[in-house]
Amino acid sequence: MGEMSMDKSSCPCSQPVRAKGLGPMVVGLIKRYADAGVTTPSILYVNRDCCGASHIQKMFAAWPQLKIKLDMWHFMRRIAVGCNTDSHQLYATFMNRLSQCIFQYDQDDLKSLKDAKRKELEAKLMGPLDVDVMRNITRSELALHCRRTTRGTEETQALITELINGFDGEKGRDSLGVPLINSCRMEDIWRTQIKHVACLQDPEGVQLNIQTGIKGGLPLPTYRCARSSTSLECFHLHLN
Ligand SMILES: [Zn+2]
Q1: What number of CA atoms fall less than 13 Å from residue 234's CA on the CB side?
Q2: I want to staple 147 with a disulfide (CB 3.0 to 4.6 A). Which of 32, 68, 106, 185 is the partner?
Q3: What digits encode the pLDDT tens for the residues 44-83?
Q4: Residue 202 CA, ligand 1 centroid: distance in Å
């Protein structure tokens, strides 16, 4: 595991940081880490100022190894603003596909999960087909047993462009004829956001997935990802 996720007992900052007066807060935080004598975080997830002439980078000059990354949920929310309404019939599908443009499942983990699910089904069904196996794998089983990694900047940029084009105009209308995407607004958003795809990428050499043991109905390792913005043990900085 990299240095970003720390044991709660040794971590001087076990909660996400939300502050308006960032300067003094960061100074205090750096001092707390130094006083505690623990390894400093290697990744910082932010909801803005991820790249360019970032003040954040300057504020954390004492931690030169720190990599500043954009929180993927904030990135997705920015793209979602290009949709007319989140109550549109196609909204959930669009957002789900957007997540798939950014992340991919580890293929070995996925194969192990399918094999385990097939064995489970064989107790109830005669010769389950691939389609039965996939249909019976739940979203939470995927999250628990399959590690996810980012796809790389170029691939994700191409996939999101394709996704937006696929849902734009006529193709994105619901049964009442309402389009999912506001074309002009989305074009504007994507033009400014495409550069931040690089800021979403998992840093090389940092293991974001922690194996948490074997539990649940399937005899497989379980993982927790430190990338998740809901994890209290991650170091997140939310700027107001
Ligand atoms: Zn950025």
Answers
A1: 22
A2: 106
A3: 888 888 988 778 888 888 998 888 899 998 999 999 999 9
A4: 13
Sign of the CA dihedral with 36 first, then 38, 40, and 46 last: negative
CA 177–ligand 1 middle distance (angstroms): 35
Q: Do you know the residue count of the chain?
A: 240
CA of 198 to the centre of ligand 1 (A): 7
In this predicted structure, what is the pLDDT of residue 154? 98
Measured in Å, residue 53 CA sits from the centre of ligand 1 at: 10
If you measure from the C-alpha of residue 185 to the centroid of ligand 1, how many angstroms do you get, rounded to a whole number? 20
Distance CA 116, CA 133 (A): 9
Give the residue carrying structure tokens 């084009």.
Answer: 165
Tell me, in angstroms, the distance from the centre of ligand 1 to residue 197's CA.
7
Q: Over 45-64, what HEC string results?
A: EECCCCCCCCHHHHHCCCCC
State the chain's mean pLDDT as an integer: 82
pTM above 0.85, yes or no: no
**pLDDT score of 232 more than 80:** no
